[in-house]
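Quick one:
INPUT:
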């Protein structure tokens, strides 16, 4: 039974590493997208209607019959992926750290420092990349959340909600 658990964990390592690399790639892309939106927002500061860089106001201008709750749900949907990546990626990093630790300890017991180093290298690289990805996406999510809150406040003003 222990051997089965070990084999399953070894099978999981490659998909987990792929997930970490994809998360990091996603984080870098999101940083670029956020920079582009920040530039657009700087060009059109304090809009009262739909403008480039203001997705919630744009949604409101196309969906005039939408309630404030529906607009808030739309805003949450816009944040959903980046928030999921922020939360899942550190977990993937932990998995990718723990899986190679078993073989690294076995290599240490066998006095095979080369194999131990190889396994520890995988473990520490994976956790570093996953934490970097999570940090970047957390930053993006935090800024977008503030931007969306500002847009929702503007919509509330337009709707006369207090």
């Amino acid at each position: 039974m222990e051997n089965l658990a070990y084999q399953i964990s070894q099978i999981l390592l490659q998909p987990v590493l792929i997930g970490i690399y994809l998360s990091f790639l996603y984080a870098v892309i999101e940083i670029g997208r956020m920079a582009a939106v920040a530039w657009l927002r700087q060009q059109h500061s304090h809009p009262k209607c739909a403008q480039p860089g203001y997705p919630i106001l744009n949604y409101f201008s196309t969906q005039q019959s939408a309630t404030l709750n529906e607009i808030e749900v739309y805003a949450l949907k816009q944040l959903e992926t980046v928030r999921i990546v922020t939360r899942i990626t550190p977990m993937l990093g932990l998995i990718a750290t723990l899986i190679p630790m078993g073989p690294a300890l076995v290599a240490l017991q066998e006095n095979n420092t080369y194999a131990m180093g190889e396994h520890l290298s995988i473990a520490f690289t994976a956790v570093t990349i996953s934490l970097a990805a999570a940090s970047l996406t957390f930053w993006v999510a935090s800024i977008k959340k503030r931007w969306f809150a500002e847009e929702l406040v503007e919509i509330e003003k337009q709707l006369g909600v207090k």
